[in-house]
Amino acid sequence: MGMDMTTKLRDFHQARWDEPIIFELTTPGERGVLVPEAPADVRRAGEKALAALPADMVRQEAPKLPEMGQMRVLKHYLRLSQENLGADLNIDIGQGTCTMKYSPKVNEILSRNSGIADIHPYQDESTVQGALEIVYELDRALRAISGMDAFSLQSGGGSQGLYAIISIIRAWVEHTGQLGRKDEIVTTIFSHPTNAAVAKLMGFRIITIYPGPDGRPDIEAFRAAVSDRTAALMITNPEDTGVYNHRIGEFTDLVHAHGGLCSYDQANLNGIIGVTRALESGFDLCFFNLHKTFSAPHGCGGPGSGVVGVRSSLRRFLPVPLVEKDEATGRYYLDYDLPNSVGKIKNFHGNIHAMLKALAWIRALGADGLREVARVAVLNNNYMFRNVLKIRGASAPYAPGEHRMEQVRYSWQTMKRETGVTTSDVQNRMFDFGVHYWTSHEPWVVPEPFTIEPTESYSKQELDEFLAITAEIAREAYETPEVVRSAPHRSTVHHIDHSYFDDEKKWAITWRMYRKKFDDYFVAK
Amino acid sequence: MTTSGVVYPYIPNSVPEVQREMLDSIGAASVDELFERIPGDVRLHGPLDLPPPLLSEAELHRCFTRILAKNATTNENISFLGGGCWNHYVPAICDEINQRSEFLTAYAGEPYEDHGRFQALFEYTSMMAELVDMDVVNVPTYDGAQAAATSIRMCSRITGRRRVLVAANVHPETQAVIRNYCHPDLSPEVVPIDPKTGCVDRAALRRAVTGETAAVYVENPSFFGTIDASTGAIAEIVRGAGALFVVGTDPSSLGLLTPPSRRGADITCGDIQPLGMHQYFGGGRGGFIATRDDPKFIREYPSRLFGIAPTAKGEWGFGDVAWERTSFADREHAKEYVGTAAALWGITAGVYLALMGPKGMRELGEGVFMRCRYLMDRMAAVPGVTLPFAATPHFKEFVVCFDGTGKTVDSINAALRDRGIFGGFRTEVTGGRECALYSVTEVLTQRDMDTCVAALRDIVA
């Protein structure tokens, strides 16, 4: 019999290959791939030069890499892959804030095309018109979606996108003669931690606003924080709570009144795409993650793409190059002529494969489809919201009775008080049912937090399954808490000893460190 | 109920009946009601200004296949383009693994349900550690340029100093990334190279290093392909001033060349693109930062570091080492910042190193080195062509100067393109006007190189 469709609970067990560390699989002499041999004439020239290399420049001891036949390498990594739960396999709505949606397979097929995989960034423009067209068309689509006037697609991830933004803000401060006068960044505790981290790195002082009773950034605290020293506001809306800040226009107006810039962290745009834009809310800069809202896959943590949009007055600060089109000839070209450019954020042109996937996703949906993404993301989320709150021990702080946007930050505080079971315990038990679950960004302003973001990709049936799992774990927490506390039971491995990660004597970040420190199975030398 | 009447394959709940059922459960009359907190003055009235959709997968596939067909690839042409992105062969298993759904679509799972990702990345860092002969390697950052910039900032925090010296033969784009990333609190200055050798001018370096110097950054092999025989001597100058020595390197050279750690480097960094990543227009990149097992260095990494640990039932377990360093844990008090970067390419580079093994890496290094020398010798014999640093050993790439031919790099490259050849790209070298950087990898045959040389003879004649 298969899964019980009434309880909606699976008798799941994750793959458990007990796979050795790859160095343990070595057999001296085995080969995984062979390298093309150098022809005779090449060898004649080359060997003379090799012999002339000073001895201390030539590696004496070969690197201690494993020696394995091809199929054994394949099998090792296939087994490891089976010990990993991707979004393609689980109902990946437990990783709130990260917009774990479907990455269409046709886009993966396209990205394997030699026409994108095997082109060099310094090829002549005439030979990469297709690549430049992708950058240009994506830039144009993102302008429509944001209301901004120009985009840089160079950054290789969201945090690097925020780094590009703070670089632009810093360049603006310097080139407008405000150095020493504008040295503060205002952000909120429910905006992504990188906003604060990159601003500090660029030499700004950080002021962090906490939420008021309704979950929105406290406007009185905000008024007290903003001054002529404010270089920029760096904020998310809706924030990680899923509560939309309807007074966002007052926030941006106030910063503008003090001569500052407003930067909109839209790593996650999913609840409002096609509904409201950065422009109408008064922002000067914004950024999107192509690997979140725009469906490029997350790849275990990259490669991604954090694209940065600005109003026309800030275009001159963008990283170089941008892609433009000569309307007379229809040819695309690289534009390096930005007088106050921050230079380079990343080598070359950014992650073209992510851009291709994002553009194909946009083109597959069109304006109506993108709006439907937001509508269903919000519908799914409010469906989950009503039903999670029916689960014993779960609650959601702030704005009672108000609909949420694309996600909700919940709390197991009541459950913890009544049973001792924590959100981390629940997390470990979720794995036993074949789903992923994340606690939340630190610090835990909401106690015992979890964040559910159902996106538009999951059917009602799948949402119901996730609810059934959550309800079952809550029932266990109240009736058989030890089952939850000792989880996972049906995952790949059992409880991991965390003392090995913070103790300098015990930590082993590579196999060679492990071999230096330990014999057998973690017996200290 | 959907605005367009279309049921979207990517949006299962775009079925009107399902939406009605869910709205009833919520107690809302319409989907619009759920958006009621968004005020009218910030709303977009009307549809986004986008081209009409390609609703069927067939139309979508056709449209994009045609766009991609406008690109000319380095497979269809003979390519001598390098400069930090190279046309190495990518073994089939590399693509097979990084296209697996389980890795491709995972993100930030825990060491339980994402055990495979942790083990694969731990193994990647472990194999890189063997290749660079260091103890610690990070989960990849964005690219080699970011790795260099972060290495420099690590040195500044360790030494408490703010001056930074960067060799003039470092990749110009990497120099630009470093300049921006060090801004405003560190001040990178450029150390000139000896115009005869293409290597760092040691006398100039000795003058530039002071008690305020946090780090000296060089690349070996350099942007010009030169291999510096005096890296050990440079390390002594750096150490004499109490500064730290950061060496950027090309991992594909390390089966052949002595790793920088054996020649005085405190930090070795670079880009893993040569280890199994397609060129992707410069997009297939990931940065590594390697140090010794010294907490003083380990605690300054902004990147994630995966460690190995025992489990309750004797399995290999994994987790994040010294998590409190990171901006995930401590916002603006963290070491720089961390985020989504290049994990999938790290897994791929691990696959590549396991396939190549020590012998494969040695053969790769030798094959590239020898092809480079062969092509240099052949090019130097073309009338009017000179190789400014020809007496210095080179790896993978070299500068060619066309001043004596009376032709420009642009005109030569245009003529080469007509013959199905991507010539080296124009590069700035002191003392030369029309110079280009030529690059080889193991995929080039003797015939490819001979074809290029014959074409050049013809073009400059």
Structural overview:
Chain A is an alpha/beta fold. Chain A folds into four domains: 41 residues, no CATH class; 258 residues, Aspartate Aminotransferase, domain 2 (3-Layer(aba) Sandwich); 119 residues, Aspartate Aminotransferase, domain 1, CATH 3.90.1150.10; 31 residues, no CATH class. Helices cover 35% and strands 11% of the residues of chain A. Chain A is built from 15 helices and 13 strands. In chain A, the strands form four sheets. Chain A has a seven-stranded mixed beta sheet, with helices on both faces. In chain A, a hairpin with a 3-residue loop joins strand 12 and strand 13. Chain A is globular, with a radius of gyration of 26 Å. The model of chain A has no long low-confidence stretch (mean pLDDT 96). Chain B is of the alpha/beta class and 461 residues long. Chain B folds into three domains: 49 residues, no CATH class; 111 residues, Aspartate Aminotransferase, domain 1; 261 residues, Aspartate Aminotransferase, domain 2 (3-Layer(aba) Sandwich). In chain B, the strands form four sheets. A seven-stranded mixed beta sheet of chain B has the order 2-8-7-6-5-3-4, sandwiched between helices. In chain B, helix 3 packs antiparallel against helix 12, helix 5 packs parallel to helix 12 and helix 12 packs across helix 14. The longest helix of chain B has 38 residues. Chain B is globular, with a radius of gyration of 26 Å. The mean pLDDT of chain B is 96. Classes of the chains: A alpha/beta (525), B alpha/beta (461). Chains A and B meet through helix 1, helix 2, helix 3, helix 4 and helix 5 of A and helix 1, helix 2, helix 3, helix 4 and helix 5 of B.
